[in-house]
Amino acid sequence: MNNKRSVLSDTHPENDHPNTHGGSRLRPCGPRLAARLGKRAFDLSVGSLLLVISAPVQLALAVVMLASCGRPVFFRQERVTRGGDRMTITKFRTVMSENTNAHWSVSDDQCTRLGRWLRATHLDELPQLLNVVRGQMSLVGPRPEQPVYTSRFAKLIPRYEDRHRVHTGMTGWAQVHGLSGDTSIPERVRFDNYYIEHWSLWLDLTILARTLSQPLAGAAESVLHREDCQEADTVQPTTEAP
């Protein structure tokens, strides 16, 4: 938490609707049993399909990671999911050092060159499909956090624990609105709780569609950034004659 003010500021618990300045209070429960069962069936079927389809991509990424960055290929960390239960998520390693458990966010300087690309395209998240198939996560839901930060945010931010009425997800309503990394936690809480209260299969499909478009946007952004850096390197400084 390098920037506590930006992360924890702007807490307005009365504004539950993320797209307005006001809104109704949260209902005490999340989706009903029938909706949860339907969501689980969707996660299992679509998650299994995506796991099979992405297997060659994950294998290729693992080989490239092993050749360029060495071991370990994967990064595992404990996170909190529905009802406060804990699970271990798996991601492709993107940082130079394994010891990132003490950090809330990771800067680009800490990432490998391949890791920066993986994070920009969100392909480092692909191994979490296994968590989805196992029933530990959902394809769509609030993003899981480390236990130490979950406890801290629950004390500081109203309605933070309401996020755990459902399984956490690989992507979410907050993430497709740009709320990831070192961004406002209260804002994420409002978006996450709005998603829980207004869940529908169509909303999940909308979020997944927007998420699947992000790797292409991230790859294009990485290419443009690299070209800008190369162009800057070719520009020679000029000096005025005295």
Distance between the termini: 49 Å
Q: Describe the sheet with the most strands.
A: 2 strands, antiparallel
Number of domains: 1
In one word, what is the shape? globular
Query: Ranges with pLDDT <50 over ≥5 residues?
Result: 1-6, 11-17, 19-26, 232-242
Averaged pLDDT, please? 78
Give me the strand/helix succession.
HHEEHHEHEHHH
Q: Radius of gyration, rounded?
A: 20 Å
The total of beta strands comes to: 4
Structure overview:
This protein is mainly alpha-helical and about 240 residues long. It has one domain. It is about 45% helix and about 10% strand. It has eight helices and four strands. The strands form two sheets. It has a two-stranded antiparallel ribbon with strand order 1-2. The longest helix is centred in the first third of the chain and has 37 residues, at about 35-70. The protein is globular and about 45 Å long. The N and C termini lie far apart (about 50 Å).
Describe the structure concisely.
By secondary structure, the chain is mainly α. The chain has 8 helices and 4 strands; from the N terminus they run ααββααβαβααα. It has a two-stranded antiparallel sheet with strand order 1-2. A two-stranded parallel ribbon has the order 3-4.
Element layout with pairings:
Layout: H1 4-8, H2 33-69, E1 74-80, E2 86-92, H3 113-121, H4 129-134, E3 138-140, H5 147-156, E4 169-171, H6 185-197, H7 201-212, H8 214-234
Parallel strand pairs: 3-4
Antiparallel strand pairs: 1-2
Helix pairs in contact: 3-8
Give a quick set of tags describing it.
242 residues; two-stranded parallel ribbon; 8 helices; globular; disordered C terminus
